């Protein structure tokens, strides 16, 4: 499981996001550190500049003696701390007053008013320091060759910078560890759910078409994928069951005509009976077999079509033509055909397919309606979408079989004594689905009502 987790796409994706997050956090923390350090440095320079201004004013007012007294007072006032650095020296850089024991070597060649970064160590006005400390100061030249250095000990500032850096690095490390833990947990959960899908797929490949994937119940994208896969599996199971059922029905429906055809052909070869009549009957059986297979191919082509033909259809003309074709046949059986064909808006689709579908419905109505029965055909529209209704006064179809009659070769009549191959309503269903039309079967009391709602 651990190897699968480390090799999983979810874990690798989590590492990618972790790297991006770490880089973003590093850039942000670096900005915070640089901004904080820059702010502290600017504050230090501002403090030095303020002290220089005050000492300059004192020098202008009281001269060199007053400046020396002011520096001495400031040195005494800031004890025991020595954050501010002062040094008044003569032209040879010999200290006169201040808290520095000697003039910094780095400041000997600097111009007046220049900023100087140097290192202090040893003792400052009697205070011992262990190790060097960074310092920053500004140098000024006074009348008579005297030199004044005013600065700040940056040891505290350096400690603050280091503390900020340590805090940022520690925060970055904690963030990295938390993000890594989150990536492991989330990828482990995703890997476990994906493994559930893989296991279900393996079971299905071994022949268990009833296997379904358990949903997590969170409604996330993996749950949506699971629901879609389960619907797809249900559809595949339905199609496979249909294939098995169609195979059984083909074997049942074609076994008798094929056996009869073989018997007639043997009779013709043996010269028994009327050879011409037997040959005609054999040809008729062959035509019925070909018609069955042609119907199957036609249904398959309709179901596999990408969409209905994009041509305008006059539904009233299609319904009228179908009624005119089957009305003489119905009247020959003593049936009455009542047609109410109202004007309807044109729809987009295939004219020939709709004619074939209506012809199949009327053929079934004529076939199952007894003599003296009634067949009704209605095209209604008004302000709504068109609706075609075909009714008959035959035996109808039981409610529990109304969905099954759309299956290929299915017959509600168990004896299969009525002529036909059980593909008529399958073709009607295929045409309706192709044109996104809803087909429903209901009770006509008596008989069957077929409704096509566009």
Explain what the structure shows.
- This protein is of the alpha+beta class and about 450 residues long.
- The chain folds into three domains: about 10-160, Beta-Lactamase (2-Layer Sandwich); about 220-305, Helix Hairpins (Orthogonal Bundle), CATH 1.10.287; about 310-454, Heat Shock Protein 90.
- The protein is about 55% helix and about 15% strand.
- Strands 2-1-5-4-3 form a five-stranded antiparallel beta sheet. Strands 7-9-10-12-11 form a five-stranded mixed beta sheet.
- Strand 1 and strand 2 form a beta hairpin.
- Helix 4 runs antiparallel to helix 5 (about 275-305) and helix 6 runs parallel beside helix 7 (about 350-370).
User: What Rg do the Cα atoms give?
Assistant: 49 Å
- Written as H for each helix and E for each strand, in order along the chain, the element string is HHEEEEEHHHEHEEHEEHEE
Strand content: 15-25%
Percent helix among the residues? 55-70%
| First-last Cα distance | 53 Å
Provide the residue-averaged pLDDT. 78
Number of domains: 3
Low-confidence parts: none
- Regarding CATH, which class of the largest domain? Alpha Beta
CATH-defined architecture of the largest domain? 2-Layer Sandwich
Features:
12 strands; alpha+beta; Helix Hairpins; Beta-Lactamase; Heat Shock Protein 90; 5-stranded mixed β-sheet; 8 helices; 454 residues
């Amino acid at each position: 499981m651990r190897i699968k987790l480390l090799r999983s796409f979810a874990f690798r994706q989590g590492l990618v996001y972790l790297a991006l997050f770490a880089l973003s956090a590093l850039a942000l923390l670096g900005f915070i550190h640089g901004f904080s350090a820059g702010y502290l440095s600017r504050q230090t320079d501002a403090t030095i500049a303020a002290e220089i201004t005050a000492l300059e004013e004192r020098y202008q007012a009281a001269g060199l003696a007053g400046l020396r007294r002011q520096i001495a007072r400031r040195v005494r006032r800031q004890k025991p701390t020595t954050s501010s650095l002062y040094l008044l020296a003569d032209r040879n850089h010999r200290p006169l007053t201040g808290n520095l024991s000697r003039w910094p070597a780095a400041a000997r060649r600097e111009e007046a008013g220049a900023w100087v970064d140097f290192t202090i160590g040893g003792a400052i006005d009697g205070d011992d320091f262990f190790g060097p400390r960074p310092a920053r100061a500004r140098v000024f030249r006074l009348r008579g060759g005297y030199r004044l250095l005013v600065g700040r000990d940056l040891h505290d500032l350096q400690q603050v910078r280091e503390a900020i850096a340590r805090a940022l690095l520690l925060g970055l490390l904690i963030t990295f560890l938390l993000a890594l833990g989150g990536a492991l947990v989330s990828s482990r959960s995703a890997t476990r759910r994906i493994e559930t899908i893989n296991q279900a797929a393996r079971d299905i490949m071994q022949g268990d078409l009833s296997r379904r994937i358990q949903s997590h119940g969170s409604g996330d994208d993996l749950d949506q994928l699971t629901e879609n896969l389960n619907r797809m599996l249900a559809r595949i199971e339905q199609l496979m069951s249909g294939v098995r059922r169609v195979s059984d029905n083909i074997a049942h429906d074609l076994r008798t005509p094929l056996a009869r055809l073989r018997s007639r052909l043997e009779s013709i070869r043996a010269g028994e009976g009327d050879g011409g009549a037997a040959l005609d009957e054999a040809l008729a059986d062959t035509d019925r077999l070909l018609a069955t297979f042609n119907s199957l191919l036609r249904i398959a082509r309709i179901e596999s079509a990408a969409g209905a033909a994009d041509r305008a259809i006059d539904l009233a003309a299609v319904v009228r033509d179908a009624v005119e074709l089957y009305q003489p046949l119905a009247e020959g059986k003593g049936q009455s055909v009542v047609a109410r064909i109202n004007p309807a808006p044109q729809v987009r689709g295939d004219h020939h397919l709709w004619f074939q579908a209506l012809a199949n419905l009327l053929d079934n109505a004529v076939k199952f309606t007894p003599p003296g029965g009634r067949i009704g055909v209605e095209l209604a529209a008004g302000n709504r979408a068109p609706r075609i209704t075909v009714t008959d006064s035959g035996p109808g179809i039981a409610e529990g079989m109304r969905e099954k009659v759309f299956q290929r070769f299915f017959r509600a009549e168990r004896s299969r004594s009525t002529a036909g191959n059980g593909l008529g309503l399958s073709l009607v269903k295929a045409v309706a689905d192709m044109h996104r039309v809803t087909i429903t079967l209901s009770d006509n009391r008596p008989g069957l009502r077929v409704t096509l709602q566009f």
